[in-house]
Amino acid sequence: MDARGFGSTGQRVSVIGQGTWRIDGSAWADAVAALRAGVDAGLTHIDTAEMYGDAEAIVAEAIEGLREEVFLVSKVVPGNATRRGVARSCEQSLRRLRTDRLDCYLLHWPGGHPLEETIAGFEDLRRAGKILSWGVSNFDVDDLEAALRIAGPYRIACNQVLYHLRERSIEHAVIPWCAANGVALVGYSPFGSGDFPNPASLGGQVLARIAEAHGTSPHAVALAFLTRLDGTFSIPKTGRALRALENASARDVALTEDEIATLDAQFPRGRRPSSLPML
């Protein structure tokens, strides 16, 4: 599947996108080339944030001349998330990204400023055309409920959370809540930030067998599994163009019910944790 509806926004967005956390750890030219290769391959959902170092500037260069093709997301850190602070941060991100608007703007994680202020700031930006929608990141169900009470239904576009094969706890409550309330679920760090199953491990062997059956890679199989549920998206990060193309190939992987059951058994979601896991 190439694209699906992004929450209540009415926009269709690429199911597999591109994250940019730590992308500035790659050589600048390689990072730009990877993002551009991804966009050319259909990974037009690009996620970044004001706290990601040079990532916004790298994204700006990568999407030069391609802005209309891209669904562009950035985030404000909680410390800046007052009503006026949201506006300032957004303007700074727009300058770094060299664009006049964001497709979606997120609160990076729950913070100390009243959520009413943050949401009021988001709504100011939406009315001004600076952002087309807004959402949240690293919100558990209690946080989502609070945001819903303040904003009302169909205002929260998405919730971006940690989601990979070894960390599936959001399937207990967060994913069902988002599905019930028309909120897109965007999974970050889908390869576990260095914790992807080793090829020699049992889990790695299971992934390899399924990948071979589909003529693809274990990473593509993982992405297909993590986006198997309607309303879910994934934003892997890479600073290599070849890996971006490999990630794009996940859109063509149609896992069978038996393969999904096998992966479910090999990488169980475990018990619901007392707090939401995040990086």
Task: Give a description of the structure.
The chain has 279 residues and is α/β, with parallel strands linked by helices. Helices cover 38% and strands 14% of the residues. It contains 10 helices and 9 strands. The strands form 2 sheets. A 7-stranded parallel β-sheet has the order 3-4-5-6-7-8-9. Helix 7 crosses helix 8 and helix 7 packs antiparallel against helix 10.
Question: Which oligomerization state do the chains in this entry correspond to?
Answer: single chain
The largest beta-sheet arranges its strands as 3-4-5-6-7-8-9
Gyration radius, in Å: 18 Å
Biggest sheet architecture: 7 strands, parallel
Count the beta strands.
9
Average predicted local confidence, pLDDT: 97
- What portion of residues belong to β-strands? 5-15%
Number of helices: 10
Work out the helicity level. Answer: 25-40%
Structural class: alpha/beta
- What is the approximate shape? globular
Uncertain runs are none
Provide the succession of SSEs. Answer: EEHEHEHEHEHEHEHHEHH
